[in-house]
Amino acid sequence: MHQQHSPDKPDDGPRRPDHGAATPAEPGSARWWAERLAGNRTRRPRAGGLSTTRIVDAALEVLRAEGVEALTVRAVADRLDTTSASLYRHIASRDELMALMADHVLGDIRVTPTGRGWRADVEALMGELRRVLLAQPLPASAGRSGSGYGPNALRLIDAALGMFLEAGLRTRQAAFAATTMIQFVAGVVDIERSAFGRGARGAVRADGFDQLLTVLPAEQFTALRAAGEAYLWMPAEEVFAYGMSRFLDGIAGQLPGN
């Protein structure tokens, strides 16, 4: 019989699946990052030579200038005035490059205590995550698959976990809170960046909504007829703030003494 786990249940230790070390590590996975970072410790960079940082910076320039379809190892090599073979000494594939880029952009997140308590700290950190994700040029799929275990992503996760632990949550509660909060922000950003998302003036491409309602059956979509205008005008910033506030209200209710 399957036993469900609750965030309020006592910790019973991490569960680590055995994936088999013989298979190549998938770019962006925890094992891939571990192997890469361990290798970086023993590698001696040559003065004036290529570095992973230079390669990633050049790749981001290509992405911003020409779009994701133009992002190839050859294009990055051309921008650095070198050969693809030179880049392959640092990265093994385009997938590895994307993983490095996805984590690199998260390095722009500022983790700065507000001095106003755990709730203000979480709001500030998640606001920073939203700002960086909205500004970065990578497609959403690259950010989700490539950045989860890189050093900058782990810095974000460590900060979020620390804030919830400091607030008084138990470890499992803090893990659920941090995961849910980060996924909430990522989901909000995905919607904001989509063609039919939401911007500073509310839902985009909503012109003609009143006309649309008039051609729908009168007995259907009654809630939209009553509250559709309010749904459309709400700006993205206010929707984000509302979701954060409601989420943190729930977290506050889990704290000792509540």
Quickly describe the structure.
This protein is mostly helical. It has helices at residues 30-42, 52-66, 73-79, 84-87, 94-106, 118-135, 140-146, 151-167, 171-193, 209-215, 222-233, 236-254, and strands at residues 198-199, 202-203.
Q: What does this 3D model show about the protein?
A:
Helices cover 60% and strands 2% of the residues. It is an all-alpha fold and 258 residues long. The chain has a domain at 48-92: Homeodomain-like (Arc Repressor Mutant, subunit A, Orthogonal Bundle), CATH 1.10.10. Strands 1-2 form a two-stranded antiparallel ribbon. A hairpin with a 2-residue loop joins strand 1 (198-199) and strand 2. The two termini are 33 Å apart.
Poorly predicted tracts of residues:
10-14
Terminal-residue CA separation: 33 Å
Strand order of the largest sheet: 1-2
Annotated CATH homologous superfamily of the domain at 48-92: Homeodomain-like
Radius of gyration: 22 Å
Helix content: 55-70%
Residue-averaged pLDDT, rounded?
86
Count up the helices.
12
Largest β sheet strand count, sense and barrel closure: 2 strands, antiparallel
Q: Outline, from the CA principal axes?
A: flat
**Which structural category do the helix and sheet elements fall into?**
mainly alpha
* The CATH architecture of the domain at 48-92: Orthogonal Bundle
**How much β-strand is present in the residues?**
under 5%
What's the level 1 CATH class of the domain at 48-92? Mainly Alpha
What order do the SSEs take from the amino end to the carboxyl end, as H and E?
HHHHHHHHHEEHHH
Number of strands: 2
CATH topology title of the domain at 48-92: Arc Repressor Mutant, subunit A
